[in-house]
Amino acid sequence: MFRVSLFLLCFMLSQLLWGQATIPLSSSAAVPGQAAPGQAAPSVSTPSQAVPQATPSASPSADRPAATQITLEQAISMALANSPAIKAARTQIQQSQAQEITANLRPNPTLSWDSQFVPVFSGDFSTDTLNNLQQFDIGVGYLFERGRKRQNRLQAARDQTAVTAAQVADTERTLVFNVAQQFISILLANSTLQFAQEGLKSFQETVNISEQRYRAGDISEGDFLKIKLQLLQFQTDVSSARVAKVQALGSLRQLIGYASLPHAYDVVGELDYQPLTAALSDLQAKALAERPDLVAAKKGVKAANSQISLAKADAKVDFNASASYSHVSGASSTSLFFNVPLPFFNRNQGEIARTKFALTQAELTARAAEDTVMTDVTNAYESASSNQDVVKLYLSGYLKQAQDSRDISQYAYKGGAATLLDFLDAERSYRSTQLAYRQAVAAYMLSLEQLRQAIGTRSLP
């Protein structure tokens, strides 16, 4: 009679504990050992009909400062402002602007002076000798450019600066995608860590209840040992998720700028499913207008035209004019000089031909860049659509079915109507489904970032 009462007491206690041990899909509770108290841990956001949200945790304690937390947009802004790689790339624009100054400079005038018939060896440096024997000349010359060379040089330099600026913007586009990719990796690691910690806590309660049942003689020692051994998998999952989060945080800090963030920092956000509603044609039209590498290719065509104009201007011959004052044998005189090359052979034909071929190359490069943009957008759109379908499959019922299967097996096992293997199999299926769903949402979010990168803007139509 005492044994039956003890079994009933254990059964009622297990009902109470198991009823509180359900692992939610989304929770804003802090992750122990990973964030300061009150810090919202990223998790999977699902519709309300799937699994209810957990209550946010309490505010940070007064004696422990909260860790620095950043959102995705803040991470992108900090990376664009502090990344050494981007700062190095931006100096290319400054270098190109300095070349504009050089291109706009006029030729320098030339100053000439000479003294002839100096009596160095005779040593006769009298006033009469200097005035009557020696010759002194001083003159000023200037090169007059024709064909608007300076204006064409300046325009070519400005067009090249525009190309460089677009290329730097394309480098920034790549950095933004890398930051978003690492940020999503942190969200996935954070959500996985939270799920693993809650699963460990829940299964630890299962082990405690099973120990009571074993002592009461309700289950065998072999079944109890199997349950205790299963606890190792939960502990391993927590350790692996913690390492993955630390590594992802380190990679994101490297992209942003190592000195720009403190060692103890975390991210704010959650794995969130936002449906993709834009049409492929709208995305392609937006990419053709805003993709930086395509803009750089189109500006390259304009820069090639400027080079042709400059080559034709260089074909115009320049002339040099100078005036000089001479003093010879006591007489002073003025001389005027003018010289111009005769363009019989060199009319810059080679450079003009080269720049025309360069224009053809730039036009073909722009066409190839346009094809690349269309392909990238199409591939990214199809990837996002496919990942969205996978997420919808989980939300359509598989998540709830996995949880219901685990709960039913759990209840049946506690009531003695199911074997231990059935319960453990249902538990493994539930965990694998939950983890696969988180990975599916992360893959979908990453495909959206790839779509934003393919378009060249973070604003999807």
Short key terms for the protein model shown above:
Outer membrane efflux proteins (OEP), 10 helices, alpha/beta, 64% helix, four-stranded antiparallel beta sheet
Mean pLDDT metric: 81
Q: How many individual helices? A: 10
Name the helicity range. 55-70%
Radius of gyration: 39 Å
Shape: elongated
| CATH fold-type name | Outer membrane efflux proteins (OEP)
Look at the structure and name the CATH superfamily. Outer membrane efflux proteins (OEP)
- Unreliable runs: 1-65
Query: How are the strands of the biggest sheet laid out side by side?
Result: 3-4-7-8
Give a count of the beta strands, DSSP E runs of length 2 or more.
Answer: 8
Structural class of the secondary elements? alpha/beta
- Tell me the β content: 5-15%
Helix and strand element order: HEEHHEHEHHEEHHEEHH
Query: For the record, what CATH class applies?
Result: Mainly Alpha
Please give a quick description of this structure.
The protein is α/β, with parallel strands linked by helices.
Structure explained in plain terms:
- This protein is of the alpha/beta class and 461 residues long.
- The chain has a single domain, classed as Outer membrane efflux proteins (OEP) (Up-down Bundle).
- 64% of the residues lie in helices and 10% in strands.
- The strands form three sheets. It has a four-stranded antiparallel sheet with strand order 3-4-7-8.
- A hairpin with a 2-residue loop joins strand 7 and strand 8.
- Helix 5 runs antiparallel to helix 8, helix 7 packs across helix 9 and helix 8 runs antiparallel to helix 9.
- The N terminus is likely disordered.
